[in-house]
Amino acid sequence: MSTYLVAWVVGEFEFVSGSCYDGKLPVRVYTLPGQCHSANFALECAIEAIEYLSQFTSLPIPLPKMDLIAIPDFQAGAMENWGLITFREVTILANPTKSTSAALQRVGYVICHELVHQWAGNLVTPSWWEDLWLNEGFATFLGEYVLDKLHPEYNRWLTFLTQHLNHSFSIDGMEESTHPIEVKVIKADDVDDVFDTISYSKSASVIRMMFEFIGEESFRKGFSSYLKKHAYANAVSEDLWEALAESSGRSDLTAMMKSWTQQAGFPLVSVKEIKSEKKEDINNENERVFELTQQRFSKKNLKKLIDIKQKGKSIDQKDEQQQLWQIPISVYALWKGYEKPIKVSFDLKDRKTIFKIKAPIKDCADGIKESTLLWIKLNAEQIGYYRVLYEDEQIMNELSNELKHEGKQYSILPQSDRMGLQNDLFALSEITAGELISFPFCLEFARAGYQNEDSYAIWSDLLSNIRSRMRIFIEGAVNLAEENEQLNKFGKEGNQELYKLNNENVRKILQNYDQWTIDFIIKKVQELNKKDDQISEKLNVQGGQNLEFINNQQLKNLLVGLIIRSGHKSVTQQYVNEFDTKILPALSQFHKELIKKSSQKEKEQSVDENDKIQFELRKEVDERLAIAVNSIQSERRGLCFCGAVESSNQSQSVPGQYEISSLRRIALFAIYKCTSPLLLPNDRNTALMYLCRFTSQEQIQSMMNLIIENEEKGIKRQDCHHVAFQLSGIAGCAKKQWQWFTQKKEIEGEIQRPIWNTLKSRMAAMLLSYFVQYASSSIVPLDYNDSISQEVDEFFKENSKLLPPYAVRKSLESIKDNQVQWQKSADVLDWILKF
C-alpha cells in the first residue's frame, strides 16, 4: 500500500451507514454534527457504485470497511485514501428533494471517481508519477461510466463531451504549454504540475476512444486481468496495453495507444471531396470519394493551411515529417430515403488517405435504385480525440441544413455530433483568430442551426464558446476605451489600431451584445415554458424524474439566467421579487455586520460567556436564513441570486437603490458564511459565485479584500481561486485584479508584494497555481508594448521556482493568445455595432 493513501481523521462526526456484499462490507458516510440528513444520497450512490465496480472488475474491495467523510475546508475536491475517502462538503452532501440536478450529478460523479481509485491507483499503483494517468484517467472515465449505469437519466456521456473532451481540447491545443499524457516527472515535488486537465480529461477521452475501439467486453476483461496481475503492486502503461491487446486480439493496440499517450497535442483531420474529371463520372452520386489529411491541431499548422488555401503556397517537405497518430476514424453518412445514417469505420495511420462511400442499394416499388448522399459527418458521436475541418463549403451547408431539421421533428444527427460540429467550428475560428473561419460566421451558423436545439449540454457548450470569444473582445474594448479617455484628457490621440473606442462606444457594444443574446434565446425560453406543464403532468402520472425533465429544467435555468444577465427587466423582476421577499426579511443585525467586521482588524478575545451567547445567537439567525433559502424551489435559487445581483448592477445610478443593493450583497455573503446544517454546501457555493458578480468598483474592491481576510471573516482558502475566476469574467476587471494582487510596496526598506505574500501564506501550492491561472486568463494586452505584458513577465520570473512550469507557460501563452484575438477583432466590432 502506498503511503500517500494512508489517512486519519480526528474530530466530532456523525454518520449514516449501510453495507455491500450481503452485509460483509460496512459503508459509512461521516459528516459534521447535524448534517447527516444530507448524506443519504451519497451513501446510496457509494453502495451501488461499489457493487457495480466489483462486478465489472470481478474483484471485491479487499478491505474490512469503506468510509467516506465530508471535510469543511479541503484543498482537493476529494482524496481516495484507501478505505477512508475525504471530500469537500460540496462534493458529497446533497439532498434529492432540496438539491439541483447539477448538484446531485456532481456528488454522484465525484463519489464514483474516488471509488474507481480503490482499484485503479490503490489496488494497482503506478510505478512513478509519469504514469499518473493510469490513476486519474481511469477514475475520470470509469467514474462517468458507472454514474451513467446507475443514473441514465443524467445523460452523462453528453456532459462528458463538455466537461472532459472539449475542455481538454482547449488546453491540449496550446502547443507551448501542453504535455504528453505520459510526462516525465523528475522528482516528487514536481507532481502537482501534472495533476491537470491532460492527466484527467485528456486521458479519460483517450480511454473512451480505446473503449469504443476494442469494445466494452474486451475492455472489461483486459482491465480486470491487469488489476489481478498487478494487485498490491506497481504497474506501467505497457502492462495495461499488454492486457488489453490480449483481451481484444488487437496486436497493434500498443503501437496505436503510444501515439496518443507519448506525444503532446492531438490531430486535426481535414476532409475534402475529390471530384472526378472523367466524363462518365460527372454527377455520379452513387459513389463519393473523399481525401483525409491529418496534422497536429496548432496555430503554426493552421497558419500554413491558410497560406496554402489563400496564397497558393506549396506544402513544405518538413510538414510531412510532423507528428502522426493512429486514428480510429468513424464516419456517419446519410443517404436519401434512409431514416438513419450508415456508419463507416477505418484507421488513419498515414498523413493522407482516400476513402470512398458507395450508395446502398434499395428496393423500391418501381425496381432497384441506388440512393443519393445527403451528408457525411466525421468523428461519429465524437468518440475520437481529434477535431475535424470540412474544407468543402458544400459539406458544411449540407450539415447546416440537417441541423435545422426543417419539416422534421428532430435532427437525425445524434446529440454528440451536433455538439461536436459547433465546437470544432468555434475552435478553428479561435485558434486562427478568425482568419480561417470568422467569428461572425460561427454566430450565423449557430443562429441558423441551433435555435431549435433541445439539449441542455449542447446549449451550454455553444454559449460557452460564444462567451469565450466575446469575453476577450469586451475586456480589450473596455481597457482601450479607458486608455483613450485618459489620453484625450491630455489632448492626445487615442489608440487607432483597432478602432478609436470610448466609453460611449463600449456601452453600445455591451447593449447590442445583450440584445443579440436575448434575441437568440428568447424563443427557446418561451417554448420551454410551454413544455413545463406537459412534462410535469406526465411525471405526476409516471412518478420520478426522467431524462427529458432533467434536461428541460437545466436548459431553462441556463437560458433564463443568461436572459437575466443580459438585462431583460421583466424576467429579472420576478426573481428579484422572490429574493427580496423571502431572503431579505431573514437577515439579522448580526448578518448585516458580517462584511463590516471583515474590514476591521481582528481583536484578541478570550472565550467567555459572551462568546457563548454570540454562538447561540448566530446559530439561531443562521437557521432562520437557511430556512428562508430552502423556501425557494431548488432550481430557482440560483436564478433568484442572479436576479438580485443583476438588478443591483443595472440600477447603480438610480437614486435610492444603493441601500437595497447593499442588503442583497450582505444577504449573499451571509448565505455563503451560513453555519446552519440545514443549508446545503452547494447553495453556499452558488451564493459565493453571484457575490463575485457585483460590478461597481467599490464592490469589486471589497470582494478582492475578502480574499486576503482570515478564514472566519473572509473567503475560505479552498474557495479563493474560484473568486479569482469569477472576477476575471467581469468586463474590465481582469487587469485590475492582476495589478491588485501583484502590487508592490516598500516595507521596511525592501520592495515587496504584500498581497501576494498573504495569498502565499493562505493557500496550498496547487490552489495558488489555480488562482494565478484564473486571475491571468482574461488579461488582454492591447499591443506588444502594453505595460501589463511587462508586469506579467516580471511577476512570473520572480516566482519561477514557486509556480509550476506548465502552469506558468499556460498563463503566458493564454495572455499572448488573448492579445492576438483582440488585435484581429475588427470583424467582431463591425458585427456588434451593426446589430
TrEMBL record:
Record lineage: Eukaryota, Metamonada, Preaxostyla, Oxymonadida, Streblomastigidae
Highest taxon of source: Eukaryota
SUPFAM superfamilies in UniProt: Metalloproteases ('zincins'), catalytic domain
Tagged with keyword Hydrolase: yes
GO CC aspect terms: cytoplasm; extracellular space; membrane
Species in which this protein is naturally found: Streblomastix strix
Keywords: Aminopeptidase, Hydrolase, Metal-binding, Metalloprotease, Protease, Zinc
Name assigned to this protein: Aminopeptidase
InterPro entries: ERAP1-like_C_dom (IPR024571), M1_APN-typ (IPR034016), Peptidase_M1 (IPR001930), Peptidase_M1_aminopeptidases (IPR050344), Peptidase_M1_dom (IPR014782), Peptidase_M4/M1_CTD_sf (IPR027268)
Domain ERAP1-like C-terminal: 375-474
